[in-house]
Specification:
- By secondary structure, this protein is mainly α.
- Helices cover about 60% and strands about 5% of the residues.
- The protein has a 4-stranded mixed sheet with strand order 1-2-4-3, with helices on both faces.
- α5 packs across α8, α5 crosses α9 and α9 packs antiparallel against α11.
Amino acid sequence: MAAYGLYTHIQSNKRRSVALLIGLFFLVYVLVFAGALLAEALTTNAPLEYMIRAAKFDFIMALPWATLGTLVWIAIAYKFHQSLIDAVTGAREVTRAEEPRLYNLLENLCISRGIPTPKLRIADDEALNAFATGLNEKQYSITVTRGLIAALNDAELESVLGHELTHIRNGDVRMLVIAVVIAGVISFFGELVFRIFFQNMMWGGGRRSSGDDRKSGAGFAIVIAIAIIVVVWILSVVIRFALSRQREYLADSGSVELTKNPDAMISALRKIEGRGEIPGANSAVMEMCIDNPREGFSNVFDTHPSVDKRVEALVKFAGGHDPGPLALAAPQTQAIANDPPPGGPWGGGAPDAGNPGPWGPTKN
């Protein structure tokens, strides 16, 4: 059924996300079957049909353990995911006294919609980025980088906070954390199976000759098992990235709905464009960010729509104005102050066209 309007699009996105998440969980079981088939191929002299039947039996026996292992993995992530993210990004929780400007912007947005104020964290990095984390109201947190605070004026910063709040309100953050965890299960077990397989081959575990392999069907079983594992891994990555891409347009729209300022959201995206790389962050963390400059093969593995496409959508549906790629002045040592000058330390909007600044124009 087609979706009309922001809120029906949000509901439609949630249904698709749940379906993708179920599909991701299903891939764990497919991976378990592939592991069982590979184990049979390495230990049994039998026709291919027999090994497939034996692998099905092994799969049924392993099913409860696979489910339990995945749930334990999710439980560990539930408890410790924020600590792990803080460790790789260098982020720490801040109070109103430490960051009154940022805290007041976030609190005002939450009060306007009657929603709990999430924790606020700052990553000491010059990158221009932000992301939300957490699995429930007690855990929800928004992290922004020092570079973002310095580069954006109040209206733009409010739009970024509105974007991350929308992810929390829409359940995107919880969904993505769980998706990353399940994909981690797939990556872990996939790598484990490959390690066991290659160690078995290296140490002579495959005791049959190549002629025996062909007669017994073990060679075909190994090829099938490895092909399944590779396909499962690729599909898990694609599903993860599909979850990320779908949510960004809605979060941009949700920010505009909160702030009533599409131009601020657009100029924030233009300033962030190409400057969001957090060196210490892994791919899972970058998927959560407002912009992920890391690109995949032929856009299949891109986690975010391009800034151009997001700005185009805001211009078309929210009535915003696109200033085009923006140049920023070089960072200043004292740029990050609790009481910045009007328009932020570097001002808002596009710089003087005749003086693009030392960083030069952003590349499309």
